[in-house]
Structures are given as structure tokens and as C-alpha cells.
Amino acid sequence: MYESHERFNKATLNVSTKPVHFKPRIFVKQKQRAMKTVDKIYVNGEFVTPRGTEIFDLINPADNTRIGMVRLGNEEDTRMAISAAADAFVSYSQTTKEQRLHYLQKMYDAVEKRKDELTAVMVQEYGGTLQFCRMSTLNMLNGISGAMETLRTFDFERTVSKSQVRLEALGVVGIITPWNASNSFICNKLSTALAAGCTAVIKPSEMSALQTQVLTECLHEAGLPNGVFNIVNGLGHTVGAEITRHPGVAKISFTGSTITGKTIARGAVDTMKRVTLELGGKSPNIILDDAVLEKAIPLAVVAGFMNSGQACIAGTRILVHEDQLDRVKTLLKDAVENVQVGHPALETTAVGPMVSKKQYERVQQYIRLGVEEGADLLIGGIGHPDGLEQGNFVKPTVFVNVNNKMRIAREEIFGPVLSVITYKTEDEAIRIANDTDYGLQAYVSSGDDARAHRVAAQINAGRVLINGLHHDPLAPFGGFKQSGIGREFGVYGLEEYLETKAIIV
Ligand code: NDP
């Protein structure tokens, strides 16, 4: 069942600059980790005590024990970080390609050296499964090596008609990230910004402070010029809002919910900041009637429950032909019964706890809502799985007889809850797939390649995956409609950090 995850891993490994080997078990080390206090932010090349004094508790989602505390920065800390980034931009924006590649390589090496620790701390603080956190650490490295690969052949000067066109670094970039793959988002966004010649102020989710701390130590060791990157732990409505309103920030790269993305976009317009927004999703998974169901259904379960369902790209709407519903129900039940829910540090765990009690409650509310709306529970339901009452564990849940108008089919649940919707014809499947406010990623399974491509071409989504969970770290990633604005990764991602200037003689 995890064959497809393995393939996903292998695909992401392809662009590493060095082979990456993980130690097989990290649980024991992690159990011995003492309670930790993060009381510094990172400004102008130094770990400094923030002006902000608010303390936020860090809770292990697997058992709800307190594992640490973080002292949060405030607006003044944010302004200091922006000022350091602005000063650094003056010289960093003038660096050559070779200098930037040198810094990115140092960043890669420093992260690679501590990859096992980065994985372990993510498992402990976020509750991501070991399988997922390993992949997320690989994605950190691939984000950096991908930025290097793109930079090597990128033309910052071009000729268009009779004019010279220069692509110039935008300035200071605000990077605002959520908790569901915190360090991997930071590494991808920061390395692309640095490749472009920008400098950065980063505001991670405060729930990721232990993960951020290890990454910051890696980045510090990489020896980048002072002020080129700055990291301020803090809340969205203080640090995030200051980054959004500050005239010294030229662009924001954000990953998170659509509602917060809209707040940032509204705030950014006053200073005409550029924005790249990677927001929510409600991805359709169209299983065409000629697909091999024995392959497509287990794959649909992996696509739906990836990152314990806390993924914007999760395939949460499974579209099946109405004549195949009975067979699909049997296969789905079998596949979900075999999904191991449990401690995230165990090798075999496929679904771990939700990141917080709040997120657990949110998912419970959606399961209740599904029942109230008249959908049928095929498997799962409200409450904790047996024996996992201490943590934020949810029963992997599948609803059948779902109508695409129901809220469980329209809203991002961000937990392991899937909806099965039937269609009569291929055209109806495409119509249902596109009948959503979102458009981030979609999945198509078919026994006929040409048919799968024909269907993929009609889906309104930034990425469409055919017959598998393939990943291409240099292909553009981003959303149609309310899934966002702009693209990340590869050439399309790099261009988002550049301003275009024409020199006409
Ligand atoms: P948010 O979108 O609110 O948080 C993402 C980041 O934005 C965090 O760092 C947050 O800080 C920051 N932020 C919040 N408000 C502002 C603001 N006004 N200005 C600037 N930055 C801000 O996600 P939540 O953590 O609240 O999760 C809620 C739901 O969002 C989830 O249930 C899920 O549906 C969706 N989500 C989607 C993600 C995706 O990958 N597309 C990722 C995470 C969540 P702080 O943590 O302090 O609020």
C-alpha cells in the first residue's frame, strides 16, 4: 500500500546533489529529548532575545504533554528583522550566480548534516508520521537543490525585440508558513528567494518553534551573510500582520489557509507587495471506469490520508462510476482497515495525531456534519481510535453517498476524512471535479493513457497526477481559483521573486 509513497520518495531523491541516507529508527533518541525553551529569534546573523515577552507552550500532539516553550517576537522585533534584511539586500542583490550557488550549497550541506534530527523533531513536535517526516526532510533538501539547479541555467538578462530585458531581485521577501510541513516550506521559499538575489524575513507557525530552532542553527552554520535571512517566531496577527503592512517588504510568499491568504492579499495591496499564495484545496480524485480498481483504490487512500490528512493536496473527493460503487466500497473498506493509526514515530504508522486539540475538534465537527448532512459512514466516525485517547488521534473516516453540494465535499477538513461521490459519465465526473472553489491538485486513474490525458486537460487545477503520486520538484506548483496566486518551484517559482525591467535604447 505504501509503494506509491516509496515512488514519491524516489522521485524527490532524483534532484539531490548528494545521496541521502536516513538512520532507520529514531524513536529512542526522541523519547529522551528534554523539555526545551526557545527564547531567541534570529536577526542580522545572530540569535537575539526578542522584545516580545509572550510565551507559547509547545505540546506533543501524540500525548498532549508539554515538551517546550517559545518566547514570541512582536512588531518591533519584526521591524528590526526587516531593517536587517533591507540592509543586507544592498550587497546581496549584487552577488553573482556563482556566489549564490556557493551559499545555497553551504545551506544544503548544513541541513543535510542534521537531517535525522530535523526529522525526529518534526515527528515529536508536529506529530507527523516518520514516513511523512522523512519525506518532508528530503523535500527540504530537494527544495534547496532544485533552486540551485534552476539558478544554474537561468537567464537574468534577455533580449526581447530590440530591447534588453533584465530580471532583478524584488527586495525583502516576507515568508509566512504553516505547521504542516514547516521546514520544508521555509527551505523551498528561502532558497528560491536567495537564488533570485532577495533577502528574507521568515515567520513560521509558532507551533513549529522546535523544528524552526534546529533549522535556524543549520542556516546559521551555513555562514550566509548577516541579514540575508532573519527568523521571527511570533503570532500571525502581530508578526505576520507587520510583515504584511510594512513598506520595506516587497513581496510575501505564504502557505496556509485561504482565509488567511485573503487577509494577507488585502493587506499587501496598500504597499502593492507582490504575493505568492499557496492556499487550501479540495482535490478531486477521478477514478475512471476503465481504471484497475485494485490499484486505484489503495492509491486513493494514500492520496487522501497523506500527512494524516493535513495536506492541501490531499485527494479528499473520490469520484467513482456509479456502477462500480459496490466494488469500490469493498476495496476502500479493506484498504482503510489496513491503515495503521498510531504513534507517529513508529515505522508502520500511516496516520498520526492531528497537530493540536483545536485541529482534532475541527475534524470531529466535520465528521458530525457529514452524518447530519445525510452522507453514509463507510468506516471511521467520531471519537478516538481505541487505545489512543491521550493524543489528538482521529479515526480514518470515509463517507459514501456524498453529494458534491454537501459541506464535507466543499470545505477543507484537513484531517483523514474522505468523501466518495458517484458520476454517470466522464463529462459529469469532470464537471463535479471542477465544481469547487479550489483548484490546487487533482488525480486521475485510467487504464487508457490518452483518455487520462484528455480528462487531465479539462480539470481546473495547478497540478494533475495521472495513475500515481508522482512528484516533480522542478515542475510548477500552485493553485487555480481560491487555491492561490502564483507558482512555486523551478523556473516559474524563481520568476516570482524577480521584477522585469526593459532597457530601450
Ligand atoms: P493559517 O492559514 O491561519 O496559518 C498559516 C500561517 O499564517 C501561520 O504562520 C499563521 O500564524 C499566519 N497568519 C495567521 N494570521 C495571519 C495574519 N493576519 N497575517 C499574517 N499571517 C497570519 O492556518 P491555521 O493554522 O489557522 O489552520 C487553519 C486551517 O487552515 C486548517 O484547518 C487547514 O484547513 C488550513 N491550512 C492549510 C494549509 C495549507 O497547506 N494550505 C496549512 C495550514 C492550514 P499563527 O500560527 O500565529 O496564526
Account of the 3D structure:
By secondary structure, this protein is an alpha/beta fold. The chain is 41% helix and 19% strand. It is built from 17 helices and 21 strands. The protein has helices at residues 3-13, 27-31, 75-92, 97-113, 115-126, 130-153, 182-196, 209-221, 236-245, 258-268, 293-305, 325-337, 357-372, 407-410, 426-434, 449-457, 490-495, and strands at 36-38, 41-43, 46-48, 55-59, 66-71, 157-160, 163-169, 172-176, 199-203, 229-231, 251-255, 274-278, 284-287, 317-321, 376-379, 397-400, 417-423, 441-445, 463-466, 484-485, 498-503. The strands form 5 sheets. The protein has a 7-stranded mixed sheet with strand order 15-16-17-14-13-18-19, with helices on both faces. A hairpin with a 2-residue loop joins strand 2 (41-43) and strand 3. Helix 6 packs parallel to helix 7. The model is unreliable at 1-32 (pLDDT under 50). The structure holds NADPH dihydro-nicotinamide-adenine-dinucleotide phosphate (NDP). Residues 176-178, 180, 203, 205-206, 235-237, 240-241, 244, 255-257, 260, 263-264, 279-280, 312, 359, 362, 412, 414 line the site of NADPH dihydro-nicotinamide-adenine-dinucleotide phosphate.
